[in-house]
């Protein structure tokens, strides 16, 4: 028998085509090579989400168990971590594969079960990042595709990293004018709080941490009831304490830090603690800087002697360029102002 003949029963409850495509993309990012997911990786994936251990999969497809475990550890497990935005080498137990992919919304309800499902089942329909830079807004829309009401009770903020971009403006207008031709000017006025046609059912307040240690998690209580076959929308208004995000003045130049948070949110619901996870997000947050700031520079291509903070500008410019490249490559929902910065560089 061919690999494609094994563990085919999972096709009824899993979006395998999308899963194969997304794992192939994760594999390419992990290896740096344009490689598709192999038939062996596909059959192992189907076996794992069907509840078979690597030992049982190896026996079924007539492979040597130890060699297959090594292959999984070097390949598929690493791609799954990347796909589900987990830390490297965090997949220690093969049993986690199915639960991680369920959280990532790869499991589906077939038509027959959809009509008879007697439980709640929350699906995240959309996540958008709006608001202003000093008050970013996470807007979440959910649908309950089950036949019972769902009670959303906790939101778990999972932070992977904080990036810092530092911008600057020149106190002397003639200095800014002399550098416009060689600088990417980003207009902060492009971002503002937008009116929304449909109001969310509730807005929760959340303070972004000024710093994080590795894989920082913070959990807050929420209270949302989503009826069966119904939809809901709620928001998280975020902010960062002003004292952690102050401007600096060096001679004739003002510097402004902007923090980019790398996170996702798990929504935990019902008595049995079912959960669903948002897509990966990159949120830019900063202080409510002075009203007279209209333009800011993040990357300086040339320098003039009149700028007394030239060394600091050069340092920040190089640091920003490196981070902008990495942020541009991230597969994530990006806040509006961050996207403007990326588009201008």
What does this structure look like?
By secondary structure, the protein is an alpha+beta fold. The protein folds into two domains: 3-103, no CATH class; 111-343, no CATH class. Helix content is 30%, strand content 32%. The chain is built from ten helices and 13 strands. The strands form three sheets. Strands 3, 6, 8, 9, 10, 11 and 13 form a seven-stranded mixed sheet that branches. Strand 8 (248-250) and strand 9 (253-269) form a beta hairpin. Helix 1 crosses helix 5 (76-83) and helix 3 (54-61) packs across helix 4 (65-74). The longest helix has 20 residues, at 310-329. The protein is globular. The relative contact order is 0.14. The model is unreliable at 110-116 and 188-196 (pLDDT under 50).
List the helices and strands and how they pair.
Blueprint: H1 16-31, H2 39-49, H3 54-61, H4 65-74, H5 76-83, H6 96-103, H7 111-116, E1 122-132, E2 135-144, E3 150-170, H8 173-179, E4 183-187, E5 202-207, E6 216-226, E7 231-239, E8 248-250, E9 253-269, E10 274-277, E11 281-285, E12 295-300, H9 310-329, E13 333-334, H10 336-343
Parallel strand pairs: 5-7, 11-13
Antiparallel strand pairs: 1-2, 2-7, 3-6, 3-9, 4-12, 8-9, 9-10, 9-11
Helix pairs in contact: 1-5, 3-4
């Amino acid at each position: 028998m061919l690999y494609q003949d094994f563990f085919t029963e999972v096709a009824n409850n899993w979006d395998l085509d999308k899963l194969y495509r997304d794992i192939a993309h994760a594999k390419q990012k992990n290896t740096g090579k344009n490689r598709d997911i192999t038939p062996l990786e596909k059959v192992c994936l189907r076996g794992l989400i069907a509840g078979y251990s690597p030992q049982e999969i190896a026996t079924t497809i007539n492979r040597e168990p130890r060699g297959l475990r090594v292959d999984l550890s070097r390949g598929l497990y690493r791609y799954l971590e990347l796909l589900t935005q987990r830390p490297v080498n965090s997949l220690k137990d093969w049993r986690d594969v199915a639960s991680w992919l369920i959280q990532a919304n790869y499991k589906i309800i077939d038509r027959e079960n959809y009509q008879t499902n007697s439980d709640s089942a929350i699906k995240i329909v959309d996540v958008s990042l709006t608001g202003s830079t000093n008050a970013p807004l996470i807007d979440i829309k959910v649908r309950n595709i089950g036949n019972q009401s769902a009670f959303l009770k906790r939101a778990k903020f999972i932070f992977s990293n904080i990036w810092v971009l530092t911008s600057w403006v020149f106190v002397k207008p003639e200095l800014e004018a002399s550098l416009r031709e060689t600088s990417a000017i980003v207009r902060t006025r492009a971002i503002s709080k937008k009116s929304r046609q449909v109001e969310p059912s509730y807005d929760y307040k959340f303070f972004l941490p000024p710093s994080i240690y590795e894989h920082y998690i913070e959990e807050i209580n929420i209270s949302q009831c989503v009826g069966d076959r119904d939809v809901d929308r709620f928001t998280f208004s975020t902010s960062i304490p002003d004292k952690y995000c102050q401007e600096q003045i060096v001679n004739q130049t003002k510097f402004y830090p902007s923090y980019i948070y790398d996170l996702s949110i798990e929504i935990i619901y019902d008595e049995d603690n079912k959960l669903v996870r948002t897509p990966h997000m990159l949120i830019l947050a900063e202080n409510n800087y002075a009203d007279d700031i209209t333009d800011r520079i993040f990357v300086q291509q040339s320098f003039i002697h009149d700028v007394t903070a030239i060394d600091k500008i050069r340092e920040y410019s190089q640091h920003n360029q490196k981070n902008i490249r990495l942020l541009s490559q991230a597969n994530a929902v990006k806040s509006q102002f961050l996207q403007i910065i990326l588009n201008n560089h």
